[in-house]
Design a protein that fits this description.
heterodimer, A: alpha/beta, Rossmann fold, six-stranded mixed sheet, three-stranded antiparallel sheet, globular, B: mainly alpha, two-stranded antiparallel sheet, 15 helices, about 70% helix, ATP-binding (chain A), transport (chain A)
């Protein structure tokens, strides 16, 4: 059974001022320590507390909507759950296979054909070549790009590229869907199709975590809510209760 | 990442694990083997992509190496007053192995920096980025050595079963490169002054390694060679190929350097792996 167990997770981002990464500065700092020259904290790492003391448990069937202002920590939390950032405090247990539905276009090669990019992207997502081959027909069919898949993707329009990228991302199977904003791509017809596909994916998976500002969408998709404010949990519980906590616009 | 009894994968992370245990090392280094399909296929794609729409494709690598051989053969051999028949094979074999080391080391400075976007977006062990880069250079190296048999046909030297020893040497060079570039790429993403310094170091290494010269040819040559890890690696790879059995000291030096470096890499990787995403 899929499970996410976050215990007092904290994330501190080191923010290097331009100097902190330079050897010259380190040397000056070392020298000034000897000579007794006082250098204020300038040039040393500062930290941004992106997440602070986040605890929650998600079980099979839970659909969590992440809400909060820009910079509240929604994206960071999604990336922590995806295993990209290791928490600097607390602990995290994730049981089940992740399906990352964010930054879905990374690692594509302009010069390579659509088919080649399906394979590259599949490899990056951790699929074996056999698993990728099995999925190619399904992806090709969904993207509706026809013979274009034989051409280098630099010949695609941006809408066509998004179709391909989405089709690859949507072909990944797993128990935990992590989504940073609902994905809407393509023209009206394809948009409807992606919406249907995303609903299908979220319905069939064990756990969904969706960060969004769209309350209507969150009500349609999620049953739980987590309100982040300045990296801290302001409210966690049934979605409707959490949405009530948000400041009125 | 562990697999549970019902086939589910489990990931359990506790923050700020500074203690480097044997179990953590094993788990972190595992993608080297478990994900070899990924980094090999990605590297092959890189090479295909680079030589797309060219006539010779990756054989351009071989062609440029042949041109180097021609130029060096015509100019440098005479300049150093050496006999072409012995000098050119020595130089070309050394240069080909050196290029594998030098270009991997040079690229490693920017491996993690350039992969920053991907490191922050995909849950993929960062070792894969290094392995992809090394694999790319291995493919280039394999195209480069295609020139050696041609040189052998022009200036034949004696080879025998002893030449097979160079495969062991090559395995050592490979492990050396993987360990060194993993460490360098992690240092470079943290301290952005290192990449330009590294360029200078690579040039220095080129001149203090017996590539354009042989240890007997210059004053103090044997002394420099005794302190240079690259010289040991060259000795155990190049010498068997030239029909010479490397001395026991060369083997000991090469294996020693590789062992120490690999141990350092495993420690540094396990200790700082999870920090790289914050530095990238």
């Amino acid at each position: 059974m899929p499970l996410i167990e976050a215990k007092q997770i904290g994330i501190e981002f080191p923010v290097a001022p331009p100097n902190a990464r330079s050897f010259r500065h380190l040397a000056i700092k070392a020298a000034s320590r000897v000579g007794g020259r006082v250098s204020k904290n300038e040039g040393s790492f500062q930290f941004v507390q992106a997440l602070d003391d986040i605890s929650f448990t998600l079980k099979h069937g839970d659909r969590l909507g992440l809400v909060g202002h820009n910079g509240a920590g929604k994206t960071t939390l999604i990336r922590v759950l995806a295993g990209i950032y290791e928490p600097t405090r607390g602990s995290l247990r994730v049981v089940g296979r992740n399906v990352p539905m964010f930054d879905i276009g990374l690692g594509m090669d302009e010069e390579a054909s659509g088919y080649e990019n399906i394979r590259t992207r599949g490899l990056i997502l951790g699929l074996s070549p056999e698993e990728i081959e099995q999925r190619v027909p399904e992806i090709a069919e969904f993207a509706e790009l026809g013979d274009y898949l034989e051409l280098p993707i630099r010949t695609y329009s941006s809408g066509m590229l998004l179709r391909l990228v989405f089709s690859i991302a949507a072909s990944i199977h797993g128990d935990i869907i992590l989504m940073d904003e609902w994905i809407a791509v393509g023209d009206a017809q394809f948009r409807k199709k992606t919406h249907g596909r995303l609903q299908e994916i979220t319905n069939r998976s064990g756990i969904v975590v969706l960060a969004s500002h769209d309350h209507g969408l969150l009500r349609d998709t999620c049953n739980l809510g987590l309100y982040l404010d300045g990296g801290r949990v302001r409210a966690f519980g049934a979605l409707d209760d959490v949405l009530k906590e948000l400041p009125k616009v | 990442m562990t697999t549970l009894t019902d086939g589910q994968v489990e990931r359990f992370v506790v923050a700020d694990q500074r203690r480097v245990s044997w179990a953590r090392c094993r788990e972190d280094i595992a993608p080297f083997i478990t994900r070899h399909v990924t980094w090999r296929a990605l590297a092959a794609g890189d090479i295909r992509s680079k030589y797309r729409r060219t006539m010779l494709g990756p054989w351009w690598i071989t062609a440029t190496n042949a041109i180097t051989a021609l130029i060096m053969g015509a100019v440098a051999g005479r300049f150093l007053g050496a006999d072409m028949k012995t000098y050119l094979p020595h130089f070309m074999v050394s240069m080909t192995i050196w290029n594998f080391i030098a270009s991997s080391l040079g690229e490693s400075c920017y491996t993690m920096i350039n992969a920053g976007g991907m490191i922050k977006a995909v849950d993929m062990p960062i070792l894969i980025h290094v392995m992809r880069m090394v694999q790319r250079n291995l493919i280039i190296f394999l195209h480069n050595i295609a020139i050696i048999p041609v040189i052998w046909l022009i200036y034949p030297w004696s080879i025998g079963f002893v030449s097979l020893l160079s495969l062991f040497g090559l395995a050592l060079v490979y492990v050396f490169i993987v360990s060194l570039t993993t460490i360098v790429s992690m240092i470079c993403v943290r301290y952005r002054d290192v990449p330009p310094v590294m360029n200078a170091i690579i040039q220095l290494l080129f001149f203090i390694s017996p590539i354009i010269w042989a240890p007997g040819q210059i004053k103090g040559g044997t002394f420099i060679v005794a302190l240079n890890p690259i010289a040991y690696l060259l000795a155990v790879t190049r010498d068997p190929l030239m029909g010479i059995v490397p001395s026991l000291a060369s083997w000991a030096g090469a294996i020693g350097c590789v062992a120490v470096l690999t141990a350092a890499m495993v420690y540094i990787y396990t200790r700082y792996r999870s920090r790289v995403v914050y530095w990238a």
